[in-house]
Amino acid sequence: MAGIMYGIGVGPGDPELMTLKAVRRIREMDVIAIPHSDKNICTAYQIAKAAVPEIEEKECLYLPMPMTKDKKVLEDSHESAAKAVMERLDRGENVGFITLGDVTIYSTCSYLLERLWKEGYATRLESGITSFCAVAARLGTPLVTGAQELHVIPASYQIKDALKLPGVKVLMKAGRQMKAVKEEIGAGGFEAVMVENCGMSDERVYHSLGEIPDEAGYYSLIIVR
């Protein structure tokens, strides 16, 4: 029988925020797939290793995912990664694809799932704690209450209209566009807080829009009210 691919969310950064199920699944896997060419600099792998040292005994399947909006480049990399996973599944091996945060929120794993489903392979998804929930907890404040709406927005795309939505806005992966994102937030008269690298050793917290720098890392998350 063919193996099963498991998408495993490892949480936002703090290894203690990994779920018991994620830890167990990693221990059970025949192969660990990572969206990188080097496990030593793959953030998801380093998080998992801190919680599950036994992962070092597992074989790694390297599936580099380029950070680009070039559709052709993305399509080729996703297709190549899916084929590599299917080869392992055809051997009867179970593959665990580890991903930051939750496996259903802007995860590279989703591009593989579509291709595996089309070919009839079995998959399972194991939830992880999302970065925006971890950031709200780190700031010691509820994310939403009562009838407030919550909107999760990829900040690397046009956000002007999204900021006009009612309720609380979460801007994910804002780092590369930080200066422009700050300008849009300021122009709308909104309040904003940000945590960069939440739960990691180099975590930084910014309590107002004025504190947020014009340049920040990729794992920067802003909450706008």
UniProtKB/TrEMBL annotation:
Pathway: Cofactor biosynthesis; adenosylcobalamin biosynthesis. GO terms for biological process: cobalamin biosynthetic process; methylation. The keyword Glycosyltransferase does not apply. The keyword S-adenosyl-L-methionine applies. Keywords: Cobalamin biosynthesis, Methyltransferase, S-adenosyl-L-methionine, Transferase. SUPFAM superfamilies: Tetrapyrrole methylase (SSF53790). Residues 6-210 form the Tetrapyrrole methylase domain. PANTHER family: COBALT-PRECORRIN-2 C(20)-METHYLTRANSFERASE. Belongs to the precorrin methyltransferase family. This is Precorrin-2/cobalt-factor-2 C20-methyltransferase. It comes from Lacrimispora xylanisolvens.
